[in-house]
Write a sequence for this structure.
């Protein structure tokens, strides 16, 4: 029998300092090893409806028997939500009902990251931060082509323009990355309301906090100090040792 992890989770969603409504929605289900952030587009009555529909659908997932079952049922829910959003948009004369989505699934000794848009998943392992997801955005394409430096991307005029989103097309265009998970891994899921204000090296430093709640508090505090021009959602997940879990590749270090 493959045993998994015990999880510590902390999360927050905040309207920010310039928006009137929060179009972000988040989900934390450590009971089944699933966490998600959805950043809605389309304004009040559009973006919040879209992101809320995604989270509501994922709340209905039952505990899976395997990692493959969790992923398959997750994808079925998202395909159905995408179709529903398209139908709602047509009923509203083409009004935008769209949302980004980034989700983390951990089952047994493995993790999978599934996303659409520019909300992100990071992994801090042995004190080193890596970005697991890759933004589906115009600015990321410019960076990939060598036409823009990563530092310039944070202030680029069209940095918020995404190239994929749920509800934007008839087919849900999801991307997936998977790999082994280890005791001591710390994952961060966030909307771009965080990453537009906080650089990766700063994220790495703040994720070194002693526990997930402190990391979430520190990341939100810095975002607000810098103006919080958008809604911001943050989830931090620690993979911890249960009675018997897969040991890390090296001594795990969550400290700063």
């Amino acid at each position: 029998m493959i045993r998994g992890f015990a999880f510590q989770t902390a999360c927050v969603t905040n309207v920010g300092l310039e928006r009137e409504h929060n179009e972000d929605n988040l989900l934390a289900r450590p009971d089944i090893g699933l966490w998600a952030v959805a950043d809605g587009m389309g304004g009040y009555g559009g973006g919040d409806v879209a992101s809320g529909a995604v989270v509501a659908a994922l709340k209905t997932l039952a505990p899976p028997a395997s990692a493959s079952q969790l992923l398959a049922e997750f994808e079925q829910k998202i395909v159905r939500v995408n179709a529903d959003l398209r139908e709602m948009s047509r009923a509203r004369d083409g009004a935008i009902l769209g949302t980004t989505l980034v989700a983390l699934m951990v089952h047994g000794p493995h993790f999978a990251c599934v996303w659409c848009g520019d909300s992100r998943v990071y992994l801090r392992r042995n004190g080193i931060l890596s970005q697991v997801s890759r933004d589906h955005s115009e600015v990321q394409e410019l960076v990939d082509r060598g036409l823009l430096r990563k530092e310039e991307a944070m202030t680029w005029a069209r940095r918020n323009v995404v190239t994929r989103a749920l509800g934007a097309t008839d087919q849900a265009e999801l991307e997936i990355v998977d790999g082994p998970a280890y005791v001591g891994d710390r994952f961060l899921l966030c909307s771009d309301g965080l990453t537009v204000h906080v650089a990766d090296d700063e994220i790495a430093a703040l994720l070194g906090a002693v526990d997930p709640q402190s990391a979430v508090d520190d990341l939100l505090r810095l975002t607000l100090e810098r103006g919080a021009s958008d809604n911001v959602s943050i989830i931090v997940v620690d993979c911890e040792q249960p009675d018997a879990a897969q040991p890390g590749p090296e001594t795990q270090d969550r400290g700063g």
